[in-house]
Amino acid sequence: MKHYRKIIILLFAGAAVILINNKVELPKFKATANQDISASSLNADASLIKNTATIKFNPEPPENLNLQSALIKDLESNSYYLRMKTHQQWPMASLTKLLTSVIALEKIEPSKKVNNLVKRMMVYSDNEAADQLAEAYGRQEFLSAMQEKVEQLGMKNTSIFDESGLSFLNQSTVEDLEKLVVYITKKHPKIFQFSRESEIVVNNNRRKNINKFAGQPDFLGGKTGYTDEAHGNLITLFEFNGHPVMIIVLGTADRHERFNQTNILRKWISKFYN
User: Fold this and answer.
1) Could you tell me if residue 125 is left (phi over 0), alpha (psi between -120 and 50 degrees) or otherwise beta?
2) pTM for this entry
């Protein structure tokens, strides 16, 4: 009997050694049906992210989101906090005017008038300003330049058919729009600087910024978009502890909800930097 007890003890000891030497790693994140990646990194390794020692990771996005697709990215560390239906195409509406602004600044001779037209698009999404810029360069040539820029930036799921965004055929994805935003922050930062102004004067009339975040100290810029087909779209850049963070939401219920949904994500992301 003692002989059998020794054998059993040896078997348990051997099993314990095997378990110690072969650690089983559990998944760090729980995937959800409506998102690709729900935290800053699949590795969840804070050491991979520069200057973000205070960030706390929470893989679960807010439950009360009501939109078609979304993306949140720290532009300094290149870390994603949310990637939701990133390849789903959706009407751009006036987000198109970000691309229109880029082409205007790159193709039309610099002038105060060009800057003012770009500012009008960024502050109150003026369709007439977009039309004037396209006409100044040549409408077909301007549209071709927009399409070429889309190809140059690798925006493979984006189609452009007009300069204002009124066309339902102007479609993109949050992944493609991310590429455009990053390009603007590097090459044409004044586009977003224009969008921060609370109001501008046009023909002796004051025009208020239609972006509700304009004028807030942590707001770094953005662009609104709305049509009956697109519903509410919004791109915003906020500063969190010195980090520029991009939030893109597409297909919210209406004009007001695009700001509400962005605010939900803004509050959610803020705790990562506390």
Assistant:
1) left
2) 0.81
Cα 69 to Cα 15, 163, 170, distances in angstroms:
48, 23, 16
Two structure tokens written together for 153: 């930036």
Say if CB 80 and CB 269 are below 8 A apart: no
**Which residues touch 155 (CB under 8 Å, ≥6 apart)?**
172, 176, 177, 179, 180
Q: Are 180 and 154 in contact (CB under 8 A)?
A: no
Tokens 């889309």 belong to residue:
150
How long, in residues, is the chain?
A: 274
φ/ψ bin of 241: left (φ > 0), alpha (ψ from -120 to 50), beta (otherwise): left
Q: Do 69 and 86 contact (CB within 8 A), yes or no?
A: yes
CB 82 within 8 A of CB 70: yes
Q: What is the second-level CATH architecture of the domain 90-273?
A: 3-Layer(aba) Sandwich (3.40)
State the Cα–Cα distance between residues 176 and 150, nearest whole angstrom: 9
Largest separation between any pair of C-alpha atoms in the chain: 103
Tally of CA atoms within 13 A in the half-sphere of 147 that contains its CB? 12
Cα 267 to Cα 16, 28, 36, 263: the distances in Å are 46, 23, 21, 6
Q: Is pLDDT of 12 > 70? A: no
Residues 112-130 have pLDDT tens digits of 999 999 999 999 999 999 9
Cβ neighbours of residue 274 under 8 Å, at least 6 residues apart? 54, 56
